[in-house]
């Protein structure tokens, strides 16, 4: 195949359903940009029986649902293998998002047939970039476990969270991923949530990436990865002039479940008690009041209303007061399909 790989926007599909299930909030690492918030999300490790009950609430017999198992570090859950097998039997397509440590011998306890994707996180193409962000020794552990997973036949993906600390190193990721045998590459952009919003001891408070920098770097890296046979996905972030704005809360089914039973539809809202649903006695209960779902229908020139409310520093304005870019829904993705 030849020609330039094309980035396309992955629109929200009717009936598509994604469940992001945080099984626990505990983690063995302390990444500098970690957004986990035990005050808002709880500190429990959900028992197996509870996880299975909650999975039943979101499964549909007639259609596959995508399930992403998260933490904290989900492989710290001692029954993760049983959860994966049960989810598969409920017609979920299952992904585990791990920091790479793969506790409880996960690779020996599930098969590539049972786990659709095993996703790893790295924030640099080598240890001197990655480890100051994610922790000493993390690069070596993570890449060794990626190689083990690939050798055993698991589909692997990798998440790279772009910030001002590592955007200059992103272009060195595609060759590394090709060498490791990673099939999908998710490029995320850091949000002004949790630690990144706090003044750092070294005085660096803004880890955000300027729009021009993001647009100059990320599409080119995605194209380079696609040329190496890797499927790349990254957030749209800025809408083109002619592109329609859509809020996933209005047109898609996404559920972000936390161990304290909170269920959000919008990930930007996760640090605030404005979740649309609560799981009570193993039932999904819609919450009345001024919660996230009351904001989704609002139409503003900036695009995403939650971004305007919670991350206003992300938006630049023209002298006449109109926004320079409209901010897309944070769940809207661009993808570049592999060229080989
Ligand atoms: S691995 Fe994930 S949950 Fe753990 S500290 Fe890093 S960002 Fe937070
Ligand atoms: S990020 Fe914005 S557009 Fe997307 S679901 Fe949340 S409020 Fe809606």
UniProtKB/TrEMBL annotation:
It comes from the Bacteria. Pfam families: Radical_SAM. CDD domains: Radical_SAM. Its cofactor is [4Fe-4S] cluster. GO terms for molecular function: catalytic activity; iron-sulfur cluster binding; metal ion binding. This is Radical SAM domain protein. InterPro entries: Aldolase_TIM, Radical_SAM_PqqE_MftC-like, rSAM, rSAM_sf. Keywords: Iron, Iron-sulfur, Metal-binding, S-adenosyl-L-methionine. It comes from Desulfobulbus propionicus (strain ATCC 33891 / DSM 2032 / VKM B-1956 / 1pr3). Residues 13-227 form the Radical SAM core domain.
